[in-house]
Amino acid sequence: MTEHARWENYPQIRRPSISSVWCLCFVILLRGAQSSSLPSGKIYWTDSGHHVIRWADLNGSNAEDLVVRDDSSYPRGLAIDKSASKMYWAEMGGNLIMRASLDGSDVETFVTTNQGPDGLALDATASNLYWTDVHGRVQRMGLQGDVPEGLLEASYTHREGIAVDSEGDWLYYTCADKGYSTIHKAHLDGSEVQHLVTPDDTLEGEEDLDSELYGPKGIALDVGSGKVYWSDTITDKIQRSNLDGSDIEDLVTSGLHSVVGLAIDTTSGKMYWADRGDDTITSKFDAIARANLDGSDVEILISNIH
């Protein structure tokens, strides 16, 4: 099946666009914060539409703004450093990666990047922060403020979500572009790039639409169970596979409308996600939800966040 046919046969598609202002919402879980002044068990997320970073209890209660940014910021990816009680987030509007304490205080610029940063991931073992940008690059930088290091060069694919397996020395990331949506992994230094999940050009019609990757976005790892999870903003699914890309499973296939953030809580056996909702014109997101790791028992925690 050609690129054009693959997309045109799916008329309800919300095509990904680098230039679109989406209300991207990356969900991060925090358990056992080092600071005694902060409660454990929090969901953190960014809201590009309202230019804020927010948090809530794991059941969705007590949601509040932590950091309010200016209207040009468009915060995107988010990462948590529990040992230092810090959070990092990407601001595509100003080409910035910002840092603050976990209660939202002490906001500062961590690094100014060349182009709009998107997904973030933290390697707590080596104290490195990894990020993707709008041109498909992957870079990293030490948390003490080193010079950014380029790992993967600009690409015709838009590398977006990113996750780190520190012990295994692997970096996992999603590529979401028309006709070439994939899940990859590479060593933490960017070497030995491998395709894990790729489109199957042998499929046709409804079989093709049900099975293809179209817009993988959020990505999360359960290394202990040997699984990688991802969300697809186009097919409206949450899926997982083994860490080598085998045994792909559909986990949540209904009630989704462009899931852009995904996180795994292995302690409670839950996955959390942010759903941008079906209002693609105003770029408002609709819900934060969770389910068991097998996709059962879906719960809407926070809804109609406009």
Describe the structure.
- Residues 1-25 and 202-208 have low confidence and may be disordered.
- The protein has helices at 3-8, 205-211; strands at 28-30, 42-47, 52-57, 64-68, 75-81, 86-91, 96-101, 108-112, 117-123, 128-133, 138-142, 149-152, 159-165, 170-175, 182-187, 194-197, 216-222, 227-232, 237-242, 249-252, 259-265, 270-275, 287-292, 299-303.
- It is mainly β and 306 residues long.
- The chain has 2 helices and 24 strands.
- The chain has a 4-stranded antiparallel sheet with strand order 1-2-3-4, with no helix packed on it. Strands 5-6-7-8 form a 4-stranded antiparallel sheet, with no helix packed on it.
- Helices cover 4% and strands 44% of the residues.
- The protein is globular and about 45 Å long.
- The longest helix is centred in the last third of the chain and has 7 residues, at 205-211.
Structural class, judged by helices and strands? mainly beta
Strand line-up of the largest beta sheet: 1-2-3-4
What is the molecular shape?
globular
Distance between the termini: 39 Å
Number of helices: 2
Mean pLDDT: 82
Give unreliable regions as ranges: 1-25, 202-208
Largest sheet: 4 strands, antiparallel
Order of helices and strands: HEEEEEEEEEEEEEEEEHEEEEEEEE
The radius of gyration is 18 Å
Give me the count of strands: 24
Work out the helicity level.
Answer: under 10%
Give the strand content: 35-45%
